[in-house]
Amino acid sequence: MNLLILVALASGSAFVLQAWRGSWWLSVCAPVVGFVLWILFDSYVLPYRGGGASMWPLAILFGTPVAFLGAIFGVMLARSIAKDDQE
Question: Considering just the CA atoms, what is the radius of gyration of the chain in Å?
Answer without folding.
Answer: 15
